[in-house]
TrEMBL record:
InterPro entries: AAA+_ATPase, ABC1_TM_dom, ABC1_TM_sf, ABC_transporter-like_ATP-bd, ABC_transporter-like_CS, P-loop_NTPase, Type_1_exporter. The chain crosses the membrane at residues 36-57, 77-97, 171-195, 267-290. Residues 37-332 form the ABC transmembrane type-1 domain. It comes from Nocardioides antri. This is ABC transporter ATP-binding protein.
């Protein structure tokens, strides 16, 4: 049983730089600064052209239709003014099309970069991160969170600049026309800005809660609707409970979506109402000015000026509202950016050291040594909405290795020292939970030792490049993973450039070629999700073919023949015998019959090596771990009761 997790907080080292969000978003857009500059030019040009229209309107009234000097309407001037009023929208429309193409290109490209960087970073994370984090939660950040910032990257920046320029141009024009009416229009703006900031902070909190809820829904979907999840639910008749669990999460998501949608609606209703009644107030104030109730500006406030001003006031309303809305959207998106940057700032626990040594694949001898290895599993590093709380509770963050060596269940491996010589077949046996699989995970650096060292050909694996270490070590697990694709693609995953002949030879060596050719589509047969269209033995032999194609110097077999029928086990065992030729092999097996010919057998109990030797040597100690396991297995099958009887009978398990 694992100990209770010791809770610490994520440190600055764990999370990286934690720079402010906005500068980091700006940094993302640096590769596209040329296109962004063109967007800004288009925005300024469009806003400048639009701001000319109200002055053309004033000229239509005061100079063309109703000249202030009382002369007849000037139809020639009117024609030119009308032509200008028609041309400007056409020009701005074409500018808008180009601007939209540029912003869409920049935004979607930046989002693709962000999604790619996040996926690449996740590929670098250690195995412990994925064992502690729900797959659905990871998928949610990669898909939903990145998609949630699409609007900010594609439209928001342009909207802010465009509306800011438009508002600035409109305000300057309004002041030129009548500063008194401008003050009336903007008198409540400070209050609106203050309210908008309050609403924005609430929207940020709601956005984070909504995305965390969406992550939970994605995790439930991924678990319940996978092949394994559906099979499990049907076997135990848990479908109604899974539906209820999903409905509960769905209702919580709905409540948060509604709350987020309604937040700020009252605020915007007040703002829109104010802007709607402002023209009426402007007409009233204009009346006071014109009738002499106020002499300030009476000589400049003409009918054309009033029409132009209300036109500008109408044009000011939408940009201001959009700026307020987009400000809320930005604050909402900042919460999503922070969730994405949380992952990007999380430093992988397994990293390549500067000056790491690259093993020559063809020169690797395959000597494996454990030198005083102590290991304990690190506690998971928690991020909001990602930790698998069903397994780890609500604590959950990284714990640094302690210097002391507490006895008991805290240590998965304790002072393990062993050597596997090049070309040897070494077997590791022991009861469940003794540390067999844990020991094999340290060789390819799925985890790093807490103390001591694991060496390959005399090199500490922590001093080797990750790629050369991965090339040197191959693994066949008890439950091999096949992705949804063809048999050929699944085998070639180990070596994408492999020829058809090499793939087929690997399949022959794995005793699966004839079975593949019996399928109507042969090597183009689709395996289905996780290979569920194939039997357990077929999947196991495909996994062996894949590792044979890789041709590693060191091969790890983790109970590769367990839970197979006799005939399938024979086929798999023959394939494994071919796979172990001329390479170092470390095999974990519960069926001791499969490792009788091993060059050396290590017995593990409670994370310690308690014995080692050959099959015959270990049977000579009837009180030893291996002999006891052997007698127990053999007696369950109805054979001789002692290892001596079994040896005399010369009967194979």
């Amino acid at each position: 049983m694992r100990p209770s997790p010791v809770v610490t907080h994520l440190t600055q080292e764990d999370l990286g730089s934690r720079e402010p969000v906005i500068p980091r978003v700006a940094q993302m857009l640096r590769p596209y600064r040329g296109k962004i500059a063109l967007v800004l030019v288009a925005v300024v040009a469009s806003a400048a052209l639009t701001s000319i229209v109200p002055f053309l309107v004033r000229a239509v009234f005061d100079d063309a239709l109703f000249p202030l000097d009382g002369s007849a309407p000037d139809l020639g001037l009117l024609g030119w003014l009308v032509a200008g009023m028609c041309v400007i929208p056409i020009v701005t429309a074409f500018i808008g099309i180009g601007q939209n193409w540029l912003t869409s290109t920049v935004g979607n490209s930046a989002m693709a970069d962000l999604r790619g960087d996040l996926f690449e970073h996740l590929q670098k994370m250690e195995l412990a991160f994925f064992t502690a984090t729900k797959t659905g939660a990871i998928q949610s950040r990669l898909a939903n969170d990145v998609a949630g910032v699409r609007t900010v990257l594609t439209d928001t920046a342009t909207t802010i600049v465009q509306n800011s320029v438009t508002v600035t141009a409109a305000l300057v024009s309004m002041v030129v026309l009548s500063w008194q009416l401008t003050i009336l229009t903007l008198i409540l703006m400070p209050l609106f800005v203050w309210l908008q900031l309050r609403v924005g902070r609430r929207r940020q909190r709601l956005a984070r809660r909504t995305q965390e809820s969406l992550s939970e829904m994605t995790a439930i979907t991924e678990e319940a609707l996978s092949v394994s999840g559906i099979l499990l639910a049907k076997v135990f008749n848990r479908s109604p409970q899974e539906v209820a669990r999903y409905r509960e999460a769905n209702q919580r998501q709905t409540r948060l979506q509604v709350e987020q949608a309604m937040t700020g609606r009252t605020f915007f209703a007040v703002v829109q109402t104010f802007f709607a009644i402002t023209p009426a107030l402007i007409y009233l104030v204009a009346g006071w000015i014109i009738t002499g109730s106020s002499v300030i500006g009476a000589d400049t406030l003409t009918a054309g000026t009033l029409v132009a001003f209300t036109t500008l006031q109408g044009r000011l309303q939408m940009p201001l509202l959009q700026l307020m809305r987009v400000s809320l959207d930005v604050q909402t998106s900042l919460a999503l950016f922070r969730r994405i940057f949380e992952y990007l700032d999380l430093e992988p626990a397994i990293t390549e050291r500067p000056g790491a040594i690259a093993l020559d694949h063809d020169a690797v001898r395959g000597r494996v040594e454990f030198r005083g290895v102590w290991f304990r599993y690190p506690e998971p590093r928690a991020l909001s909405g990602t930790i698998d709380r069903d397994r780890f509770g609500d604590s959950g963050v990284r714990i640094e290795a302690e210097v002391e060596r507490p006895e008991g269940p805290h240590w998965a491996l304790q002072d393990v020292s062993l050597v596997v010589e090049p070309g040897q077949l070494a077997a590791i046996v022991g009861p469940s939970g003794s540390g067999k699989t844990t020991a094999t995970y340290l060789v390819p650096r799925f985890y790093d030792v807490t103390e001591g060292a694991v060496l390959i050909d005399g090199h500490d694996v922590r001093e080797l490049t990750l790629s050369s270490l991965a090339d040197a070590v191959g693994m066949v697990t008890q439950e091999p993973y096949l992705f949804h694709g063809t048999i050929r693609d699944n085998i070639a995953y180990a070596c994408p450039d492999a020829t058809a002949e090499a793939i087929e030879q690997a399949a022959r060596d794995a005793n699966i070629h004839d079975r593949i050719m019996s399928f109507p589509e042969g090597y183009e047969t689709v395996t289905g999700e996780r290979g569920y269209r194939l039997s357990g033995g077929e999947k196991q032999r495909l996994a062996i073919a894949r590792v044979l194609l890789k041709d590693p110097a060191i091969l790890i077999l983790d109970e590769a023949t367990s839970s197979l029928d006799t005939e399938t086990e024979r086929l798999v065992q023959e394939a494994l015998e071919r796979a172990t030729r001329s390479r170092t092999t470390i095999a974990i097996a519960h069926r001791l019959s499969t490792i009788q010919s091993a060059d050396v057998i290590f017995g593990l109990a409670d994370g310690r090596v308690v014995e080692q030797g050959t099959h015959e040597e270990l049977l000579d100690d009837p009180d030893g771990l291996y002999a006891r396991l052997y007698v127990e297995q053999f007696s369950r099958r109805g054979g001789p009761r002692t290892p001596y009887d079994e040896r005399r009978a010369d009967v194979s398990l």
